[in-house]
Design a protein that fits this description.
alpha+beta; Alpha-Beta Plaits; 483 residues; eight-stranded mixed sheet; four-stranded antiparallel sheet; 14 helices; 17 strands; Aminopeptidase; 22% strand; 2 domains
């Protein structure tokens, strides 16, 4: 009886402590403030974006004439901006705009966007992908979301502020890359190297990244504005299995395809470790206070419930990618004829590296789980495999960014997260570690499929909100003092 009473007492104390820890969770969310509305003729702004979407600036094809015409078009259609800022070009098609502030002692705000797009199959779209058609209040075209919509929203915001008579205290720099979709080596890399040579250390760098996401995997009813504070690394490896060739009528017990299949099965059966550390932990810090019960109890006491949270998140592709290094077979190759045993069989595995895993650690993991002398694992050299550093969320720059988001999207919650894709921003992390990734568009899970997919488009309302966000960010960045 005494043991039972002791157990009940201990359990009651434990539950009380869990409850107290839950209700004491602080809110990280800034209070939305009334913002200065900039005057925007959204119909005219939409027409300017529409016209830019008509340029087939596909970086995998790199039509110099199309890119040059696009640059000239921008200068003609946003004359207020280009007549005010200083303009430098890099490798013909990338641009660096500098809007000089009144206080040279303040580090600059650096806004990034890219002007290149991925290919689009015209026959699968409801509207031609390079038409820029405006139908039922939506602007259609490849690049509307990724990333010309962001580039032109920045230009529209600056133009509106100039026409309002605003002059920033903090210098505003805008870098438009032209080859982000193929690695950014001639655009973002060239601009960042120039800025480094000039000893420019941005107060904040903001690039594309997370969205204002509705109906996502997180258990909150409000939309969540996801701000990337780091990017996963990118590493592709080729797995090659070898065996004796010969006639398919007399196959040995172990063929190259057999070895490759076993290797792929071993990789699938041994995923990388999942954990709530780093950006994932910070995401829950920022959302826990606004999370409903009973999830709030779990998130507030992650020290106890992390296995349950991880098991739940792993069920969705997005949640799983947030927790670990992912591995996905993307290319397979074997054989030259249907009745000939191939001497080699190979697969390319694309890995997105969590900040806790280096490229060498990932290679070691794959080789260990395959454990077959007939199979080699070698990295491809197309991309730098390192993940980026984790940018701080306690710096005034992030606080201003979070405030700008809440002012522009008052119904949304702000949360830092780990960006699973790559962007030009990774090339600017050597200038300063305050690099953030957020694209001010409202999307739900289904609309996310338009990125690099068919029927890419944004609504006029989304576009107007994005323009207002950039204007608000520039204003607030100028109002801050250095700390």
């Amino acid at each position: 009886m005494k043991r039972l009473l002791l157990f009940v007492l201990v359990l009651s104390i434990a539950l009380l402590l869990l409850f107290i820890n839950t209700v004491r969770q602080p809110s990280f969310q800034p209070t939305p403030e009334k913002i200065t509305q900039v005057v925007i003729n959204i119909e005219e702004a939409a027409q300017r974006l529409s016209s830019l979407l008509q340029f087939p600036s596909i970086s995998t094809q790199m039509d110099d004439a199309a890119f040059s015409a696009q640059t000239q078009h921008m200068q003609q259609h946003w004359p207020t901006v280009y007549d005010t800022v200083s303009l430098q070009t890099f490798n013909q098609h990338s641009q660096l705009l500098t809007w000089t502030g009144t206080d040279a002692s303040l580090e600059p705000l650096l806004l990034l966007a890219h002007l290149d797009v991925v290919p689009a199959k015209q026959q699968s779209w409801q509207q031609p992908p390079f038409s820029g058609n405006i139908v039922d209040g939506e602007i259609w075209g490849r690049g509307a979301l990724d990333d010309k919509g962001s580039a032109t929203a920045i230009l529209e915001a600056i133009a509106a502020l100039i026409e309002k008579g605003f002059r920033p205290r903090r210098t505003v720099m805008v870098a438009f890359g032209h080859d982000e979709e193929v690695g950014g080596t001639k655009g973002a890399v060239a601009i960042s190297q120039y800025l480094k040579a000039q000893m420019t250390s941005p107060w904040m760098t903001l690039d594309e990244g997370g969205f204002v996401l509705s109906n996502g995997p997180l258990p909150v009813s409000a939309p969540v504005a996801l701000v990337g504070i780091a990017e996963k690394g990118y590493l592709s490896v080729r797995i090659t299995a070898t065996a004796e060739s010969g006639h398919a009528s007399m196959p040995p017990r172990e063929t190259a395809v057999f070895h490759l299949a076993n290797a792929l099965n071993a990789i699938e059966a041994s995923p990388f470790k999942a954990s709530l550390d780093g950006p994932a932990n910070q995401l829950f810090d920022w959302l826990t206070a606004e999370t409903p019960w009973p999830e709030k109890l779990l998130f507030a006491n992650r020290w106890l419930f992390s296995p349950l949270i991880i098991a739940t998140l792993e069920k969705s592709p997005g949640g799983n990618a947030m927790l670990r290094t992912t591995q996905a077979p993307t290319l397979l190759n074997a054989g030259i004829k249907d009745n000939v045993l191939p001497e080699t069989a190979s697969a390319v595995i694309n890995l997105r590296l969590h900040p806790r895993d280096s490229g060498q650690q990932a290679l070691g993991h794959l080789r260990k789980v395959i454990d077959n002398e007939a199979v080699t694992v070698e990295p491809l050299e197309a991309f730098d495999n390192s993940s980026t550093v984790i940018s701080p969320t306690d710096h005034p720059a992030f606080k201003i960014l979070a405030q700008s988001i809440r002012n522009s999207f008052p119904d949304a919650l702000v949360a830092p997260y780990l960006m699973v894709a790559t962007s030009d921003s990774r090339h600017y992390t050597s200038l300063a570690n305050r690099v953030y990734r957020f694209l001010p568009f409202r999307l739900d899970n289904d609309e996310l499929k338009r990125l690099h997919g068919r029927d890419e488009r944004i609504s006029l309302r989304m576009y107007q909100e994005a323009i207002q966000f950039y204007a608000n960010l520039i204003i607030l960045s100028s109002d801050t003092q250095e700390y």
